[in-house]
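#dry-run=false #mode=assembly
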Amino acid sequence: MNYETVIGLEVHAELSTKSKIYCGCTTEFGGEVNTHCCPICTGMPGVLPVLNEKVVEYAIRAGLATNCEIAKFSKQDRKNYFYPDLPKAYQVSQYDLPLCTNGYIEIEVNGNTKKVGIHRIHIEEDAGKLMHDQWETGTLVDFNRCGVPLIEIVTEPDMRSAEEAKAVLDKIKSILEYTEVSDCKMQEGSLRCDVNLSIKPEGQKEFGTRTEMKNLNSFRSLVRAVESESKRQQQVLESGGVIVQETRRWDDNKGVSYSMRNKEEAHDYRYFPEPDLAPIVTTDEMVESIRKTLPELPDVRRKRFVEQYGLPEYDAWLLTTSKFLADFFEEAAKISNSPKMVSNWMMGDMMRIINDKGLDYDAIPFTPANFADLLGLIEKGTISGSIAKTVFEEMFTSGKHPEDIVKEKGLVQISDEGELVGIVKTVLDENPQSVSDYRSGKDKAFGYLVGQTMKATKGKANPQVINKILKDLLK
Amino acid sequence: MELYRYTAHEIRDMLRNKETSVPELVKACLERINQVEPKVKAYVTVCEDEALRKAAEIQKGFDLGEDMPALAGVPMALKDNMCTKGLVTSCASRMLDNFVPPYDAAVVNKLSEEKAVLLGKMNMDEFAMGSSTENSYYKQTKNPWDLECVPGGSSGGSAAAVAADEAVFTLGSDTGGSIRLPAAFCGTVGLKPTYGSVSRFGLVAFASSLDQIGPLTKDVTDCALVMNAISGHDPHDSTSANVAYPDYTKALVNNVKGLKIGLPKEYFGEGINPEVGKTVEKAVELLGELGAEYEEFELPITEYALPAYYLISSAEASSNLARYDGIKYGYRAERFDDLIDLYRQSRSEGFGPEVKRRIMIGTYALSAGYYDAYYKKALQVRTLIKRGFDKAFEKYDVIITPVSPTTAFKIGEKAEDPLEMYLSDICTVSVNIAGLPGMVIPCGFDSKGLPVGLQLIGKPFDETTLIRAAYTFEQNTDYHKRRPNL
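#status=ok
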């Protein structure tokens, strides 16, 4: 039987507000353990929360950017459960009256555009962090993250493949980055994703029983987890079993998931309205003034890149997924004569090096202007394309200006025919076999001789000049 | 007269006229505490050295002729559920026996600005849950009028201390009657202000939507003075009301002419001890003679107030008290097997039986499948009760009722029967549910010589009308001047 996978995502994003949701503590990541906290965010007896208005503004911005309706009246609720990283033993969240509802985003997969519904977006507070390994006698708690504001974005179960799920997470991430709602750093945990997944026989209308998968901290693990879980469910069904509604934890090292059916997970959260906080009331004026501050969003920017710079659809899409990349492109393109060339280099070598090094975009150690200068050196014929690759690698390591690298390493291209003729002659003398091969019609030998000449000049020879000299000498 | 017997407003005048000094006053109160505390047991902490140090400091202000606040130099004490920086705040619970707050409650800051002198922290029912102060982890506070009787609760220490002249005034907290019931049992003045008019920041929460801090004082004038000091908008408390707060002393007017008083039949009927009912009625008649108009009326839904109260307050408490888990502060069991066991043992050993009972009621009421039948229904009753009061206040300026069905009962008399104990709150809980101000003044004594209290209920933020009515009654009687024989 053929099965169809039904996927919904729950995305948690830490907001980029300066202070926490209910107190004045900083939200900065990476502070000394337990230094970014106070009696309020550590849940001391008698303390009270005061809602950071910026949190509401940021969440509304996310809602508007995903075409949501903004609730006129919304409230906060307590979600009760015991865990050492949750000092009040309840998380303030939103239960039945979230701030944003009923939106959608658009994704492109295999050239097709698809709408994916946003069920709701609500605000809540983050928990602290347990540290299991740094102490011999037990577990320690770091409350720095406690009370950092989050939004939870819940999609409709509109995805049907790992590819679509990835595209949705991609799109949500870029929207949150564009609107500066969150910095979306998955490895720092500021963007986290849970997957709800069920399968059903193709064509059947009713959904199957779903499972919830937690601990997906990269796009790669999202894709692998979706594939693994739909396979697992299929095996269960085909062996005559039934799917149990449960929460599962993804182990990315082993590439498998485990059921989290233990006492701690058997929760009845006993939601009830948070009596320490007033309801959130929004006005049309407030929502409209936030709407006015929304920047150009990824979909619009992508279309503009195609029209304005003549980029292919795919390139425009990839560059605009990340606000950082898109900004980088536009700044470099402003300086360079050839936006196409900027795009090609970014799509090719730049992405390859970034992926090889596992870099964050914002850790790129040179400016778009320096990058444009590198491309300018190629255009001017100062260096060859292949030398430029070496220089580019070096820019990633040292962050130096390309001209400095070229100077320091003596990489300027040799285009002087007089200088190159001698070198080519030596190469021909050393490779009589190739010379005769070429002359007997084996064109391949020509390439070999070009390669040898490049080698002899440590890649600095201008390939066009070498071609010309070789052709002359081999006539 | 002994120095410890004076009221705050008398002390204010005496200090300005240099008839006494702050250190003299504080010493007199500390001596009084030493003398009667073995009998009354109202305090859980007395901070003698700090009080004397403060007294000397404040006296300097008087000596230099500085402009001093109304409560400057007045010795006072706080219920032990208000956080005091550097001073144990226990809620009379084993759970917080060792808890020293790193910050001061908003009311503590306000009283400190007023230069009042903190004598110590008062005994209470554990986490403010109870009507008799029998649920304290530490000790049984006695009623100064009859040491075999309870002082009421949960602010039993706060009321007993004022009645026994162990403090000039105290602060209590009131979730369902916890200021008013002990005020009535001990014959003091007590006010539960309108919800939102005194900051709850730093008050260890029992039931957030009902809790309110208020004064227990020797007379109505002191009540107004303390209200001036502690009320006001606090941006750190999201439920604090941002309204204009009056000068409550302006309401100290001996005149009730034309005041319209409503007497809800439901509060005078079955279950109310006839002596109590009659004493309250006589008090109302006196107000009538002084020019007020009064009549009986029906206040519907009253019978559902008590169950609604116990559901709402317990539900909130079950969540508010979940943070006491043995992880961060407070009591942690010595032996446990794993995380769940750490929680279980710490909470089993750290909480007393009444607190556990409320946590269980509340957890049950919020549980999936029961929420609609209990918690949600209770909220609906809450709305109806509010509406009932709104309607009544279209017609009346003040509603008068008894405070409790009986006067102070014997220690141990109801301790084994929680339901009987809960009925002590039947006249007071509606006021919290509706968020209204409720004031208690002494209005007589029963045949056993125990004080009877009168409850005045007002419109939201209309404490001034209550104070005016109470002041008028007080000016025409002398119950507030009587003192127990200790």
